[in-house]
Specification:
alpha+beta; Arc Repressor Mutant, subunit A; 36% helix; 8 helices; 9 strands; 3-stranded antiparallel beta sheet; single chain; 4-stranded mixed beta sheet
Length: 202
């Protein structure tokens, strides 16, 4: 479906007032916008119809931002922040494991969301997010976290399991030892922690 913007001059009354509260690139929940409108559902339908908003899911809308290449999709963090109504989450693709240097090469067309609130697969527009409740996770990706998380999820990956374990043991010395110990303690599953103990690391 092609979306085109309708100019503010062609909008009138309450829907124009609501349109003026919306910033390009942002993701909004219905309740975020309800206090700017006396008929929020009708006004939201009008803004979707003219392309000022895109409906990502029930009650969740994106205000597209234009670029030289067309309308930009919403940033993952914007979508997740709006859905969770929370800032405490970590979004990444399992493809990030390839940066650890264990010879993994698979590219994954899915997005993981570690958080404290929701669990399951949720679709927003044409994107699907795999939400997983975790007791702890870092604010940003680090090599040490990625190594631990890769081992936690090893059975889910389309890789040679034994080859990865062999390379991981050999490459332990290339990681920051203190940070890796902390990552194992904070984020490692019981199986992963036991594996590091067997490797005499931990």
């Amino acid at each position: 479906m092609t979306f085109t913007f309708q100019t503010s001059q062609s909008l009138r009354g309450g829907v124009l007032h609501l349109a003026n509260q919306i910033k390009p690139g942002r993701v909004y929940r219905r309740e975020d916008l309800a206090h700017h409108s006396t008929a929020v559902d009708r006004h939201l339908r009008e803004l979707v119809a003219c392309g000022r908003l895109r409906k990502l899911a029930q009650g969740i809308y994106h205000s597209p931002k234009s670029s030289a290449f067309g309308l930009l999709p919403p940033a993952d963090n914007e979508v997740v922040r709006s859905f969770l109504r929370d800032e405490n989450f970590l979004v990444f693709s399992p493809s990030a494991y390839n940066s650890v240097g264990l010879g993994t090469t698979q590219l994954y067309n899915r997005t993981l969301v570690y958080n404290h609130k929701r669990h399951g697969i949720f679709a927003f527009g044409n994107r699907r997010f795999d939400f997983r409740i975790k007791p702890r996770f870092p604010k940003k990706l680090t090599p040490e976290f990625l190594l631990v998380d890769l081992l936690n999820n090893l059975d889910e990956l389309a890789e040679d399991r034994e080859a990865i374990l062999h390379r991981a043991q050999i490459k332990l010395s290339s990681f920051d030892a203190a940070r890796l110990r902390q990552a194992v303690k904070n984020y490692g599953s019981m199986v992963t922690r036991k594996r590091f103990q067997e490797w005499s690391f931990g």
